[in-house]
Design brief:
The protein has ten helices and eleven strands. With 280 residues, it is of the alpha/beta class. The chain has one domain: Rossmann fold (3-Layer(aba) Sandwich).
Length: 280
């Protein structure tokens, strides 16, 4: 990875990743079917209260989850990640979360995921886990994607229409056969493939149907492009949401099921909306 510079740092990163993997293997041996240990990044300086608290309510309502709040400082010290199955990065500001974590925290999250951890990133978190734009964000590039039309990111807020588009739309559809859903959107990312060699391509699960544009900005930038994506990273798994399932009535289960998939409680393949979001 480009952030590893020098033999000493490379050896240190390998040792940390090996330690995290060892802790996870011991935990798995002790009881793979125990509660899913979920950490929610909760720094008030970089996470949005409405998104953060809505995520917390969804996590707390799941009988098979053991949620806890974590801070960027705890992540930098690696002790929080060693006791988690999944880390959730909620809405807020992607640059702010990157700054709070710092390069060291970003590396810890990367090592955690490569060693078998799961990451679920929402809105600001989605900006953070794709192609980075500074040292902090380049330390946590977990999914082979980049964001599209960032120059006009301030598209607005409101309920939008999205569509389930993967290869299993029938299984992921409602009982009436519809593959469209209504989701809350707050200036979230639009995902497009990055095309990195050596990193698996992501699976698009949901695409935008609605199109929002800032005043004076080009229109048509959202429509037909990816809104929710998922992919493995090393031994771990990553799901990135552009819109907010936690703020969308009737779609809280998408968030909960994505956590279960990221934790390895669902088979890896096929990576479809039916598997990742609907838990089928």
């Amino acid at each position: 990875m480009d952030w590893i510079d020098g033999g000493g740092l490379r050896r240190a990163a390998v040792l940390v990743a090996a330690f995290v993997l060892a802790v996870r293997l011991v935990s798995t041996a002790a009881g793979a079917e125990g509660p899913v240990r979920v950490g929610l990044l909760s720094d008030t300086t970089c996470t949005d209260e409405r998104s953060r608290e809505a995520v917390w309510r969804v996590l707390s309502e799941q009988a098979d989850f053991a949620p806890r709040r974590v801070t960027a400082d705890e992540i930098r010290k690696a002790d929080a990640l060693a006791s988690l199955d999944v880390l959730v990065l909620p809405g807020g500001t992607g640059g702010g979360q990157g700054k709070a974590l710092g390069v060291d925290g970003g590396r810890r999250v990367t090592e955690f995921t490569a060693a078998g951890g799961g990451v679920l990133a929402i809105c600001a978190g989605g900006y953070l886990v794709v192609e980075g734009w500074n040292a902090e964000t380049r330390a946590i590039e977990l999914i082979n994607a980049k964001t599209f039309d960032d120059e006009h990111w301030a598209r607005g807020e409101g309920f939008i229409t999205v569509e389930v588009v993967d290869g299993d739309t029938t299984a992921a559809a409602r009982s009436d056969g519809s593959t469209t859903r209504t989701m809350w959107f707050e200036n979230g990312p639009i995902f497009v493939p990055r095309g990195l060699e050596g990193q698996p391509a992501y699976a698009p699960l949901v695409r935008y149907v609605s199109d929002l544009a800032a005043p004076g900005a080009p229109t048509g930038m959202m429509r037909g492009r990816d809104a929710i994506i998922a992919a493995p990273f090393g031994r771990g798994r990553v799901v990135a949401f552009g819109p907010h399932a936690e703020l969308s009535p009737g779609l809280h289960h998408w968030l909960a099921n994505a956590v279960r998939w990221a934790a390895g409680r669902r088979p890896l393949e096929p990576v479809t909306a039916a598997r990742v979001l609907e838990g089928q």
